[in-house]
Amino acid sequence: MRNTLxxxxxxxxxxxxxxxxxxxxxxxxxxxxxxxxxxxxVTNNxxxxxxxxSIDKLSIGFVPSRDPEEIVTATEPLKNLLQExxxxxxxxxxxxxITVGTxxxxxxxxxxxxTIDVGFIPGGTYVxxxxxxxxxxxxxxxGLSIDSDSAKDWNDNKPTEPSSDMAVSYRSLVIAGPSAKxxxxxxxxxxxxxxxxxxxxxAVWSVMSPTSPAGYIYPSIWxxxxxxxTILDLPSAVPADSYGSAxxxxxxxxxxxxxIYADARRDNESLWTGEFGRENSIWExxxxxxxxxxxxxxxxxVSKRLDGNFxxxxxxxxxxxxxxxxxxxxxxxxxHKGYQKAESSDYDSERQAQQFIRQFN
Length: 361
Known about the structure:
The protein is of the alpha/beta class. The protein has helices spanning 2-16, 68-75, 78-86, 104-113, 123-128, 151-156, 180-190, 197-201, 213-227, 243-252, 264-267, 269-273, 282-285, 308-322, 325-331, 348-358; strands at residues 44-47, 53-62, 91-100, 118-121, 133-144, 162-167, 169-170, 172-176, 205-207, 237-239, 257-261, 287-291, 295-296, 299-303, 338-341.
């Protein structure tokens, strides 16, 4: 069955590779994209007295992988910092507007329509909307002290700690909470057993939106690899607005299982015993019961309607910002440590995953 899956994924990759484009020198498509000079938000005015190109408004969208108010507060300083840094690349931006989408698709659709100029989005969302968006950057993150295919290894070696090694990929974890059903599943794994489809299909799951790599796509691949099923086959899979709300449901016993990015427990550790009201630590109450293949890191993507030269300036400015202490503090809301230039082909594995998921939708 695993060989069949690998064959299907390889075939999907060969099909989508034909559509993955880059320039001859390997730079992102966006750099040379000058077909459209404006979006609905960006106006290319005449140069000002300092020789800078004046931009009325730059719209940036973030996906709600954390609490939206928390994201808005944390990224507020990015406005001035981006305006200041873009002057080094010849642009004077009058206003930077930051919004958090109600779901991942809102940001993808905004990039496609040109109502959002820059999106901080997962790879899965990017490839779903790459007809209207170009990837310019990949986020780098701290590696983790555990990176194993075995769920039991994650439990035996918890808590998960950051590593000094930078990583461009991460894992999605299937976790079981403190409910009676959750403890039953965790006990099976920690005793060296294997879960059956009946074990996990009788649990209540919290999942993210269908374009979320860690919260939907890769967990579906894990289900297919192990049970020849997907999230769509689960009798009780409830969409969560954010990973924070997924942990809140897990803590209250409203759900037994959640699907998360690998360091999400670290991000919600204080909330677990604070706002969520648990007596034990998150490491005592929550165990890993499944581990997905590695997922390529989040993107910074731009609308194809954005002027190519301006997109290149944004690319360079965000790399510079990620190399400063102030910038790293801002982007830490997504656990980003910095950015490196990206190409469309970097996300061919995400195209594989999306192609795989479409077989079951």
